[in-house]
Design brief:
- Helices cover 31% and strands 22% of the residues.
- It is an alpha/beta fold.
- Strands 5-4-6-8-1-9-15-14-10-11 form a ten-stranded mixed β-sheet, sandwiched between helices. Strands 2-3-7 form a three-stranded mixed β-sheet.
- Strand 2 and strand 3 form a beta hairpin.
- Helix 2 packs across helix 3 and helix 5 crosses helix 10.
Amino acid sequence: MRKDVYISGYNCITPLGFDAESNWRALAEGKSGVCFTQPADSREAFYVSAISNERLKAEFEKQFPGQHASRLEKMLLLSLKPLAERHTISENTALIVSTTKGNISLLKNQPALPEGVFLSGMAQKIAAFFGFKTKPVVVSNACVSGVMAIAVAKNMIRTGKYKDAFVIAGDEVSEFVLSGFNSFQALADGPCRPYDKNRNGINLGEAAAAVYMTSEPDGNEQFSFKVSGDSAINDANHISGPSRTGDGLFASIRNAMDEAQVSSEDIDFISAHGTATLYNDEMECIAFHRMDMQHIPLNSMKGYYGHTLGASGLLESIMAMESALKNMLIPSKNFKDPGTSQPLNIIKENKTADIRYILKTASGFGGCNAAVVLEKTLN
């Protein structure tokens, strides 16, 4: 008999707040973490969404006195700690870590590979902090990593080997990542504008997020969301450019909805990828139209957080679940005039809504695409 798997806890560390509730309040008030700033290890200033080094250091020293960790590890540990304290970590508890670049900033000006630069080593360090008894799993598949990590956790629990799982995701703004996107001429010259006709690129951002997933709810949950369906498809279109026909995203959405046994009429809200690049947003538009989903309220979180890479899918899923719990749709920040070839129902202002089914999508370099359907089962 197939097990149902639920998300019943989450937390996040972002420039807008160090827990989910403060992040939600900031979003509801229209606040954004994106500003013109010079990241710690960068030679230039860009429009990015960066976490305060001072606050991160203070919070880490308060929560983990006497411990040492890289900047990214501090973010990940702080995001996971409240969940790890609330739930028992047993021999049947999995840990899944999502990131695209991990501790890559540690490589700067180093003659040899420093400890923690390997993703497996970083994941094992996180596991050791909390006493996980199983070997951590790393999901690093470009910008779909966060969404895929949810699916990996669900499928690991369904094997019967694991009772529950913690999924954490994080990336930081580094000179390496900035220079890479800058070489693509993909960085916006101001706050990004997903789906807008004047969009001209992304803002990078940094965040860490964590969720707790289980097949055995204990009845004390304040909320739960069933992971009803998921899928990841690679259309192998290009090393960095999205498919012009939206094939991979279309297939991912279709498969996830088929597993969830829902139709486009059942979906109440789409938390889309929406990077604000010319081709990504157009590709998503085409895929949503092919699924007959152009009427469904949709937003992108990139105008609030920037593109947080491996954290984006998990962080945006958390904020989508907050929307469902609060019965409120948040606008796609900085959107004014439609800029895709076909219309979409872009959310322009805060408005109340009854949200049961959420579709979360993501797309990334190398032709990867992913989708997950979340169903609110307890509020």
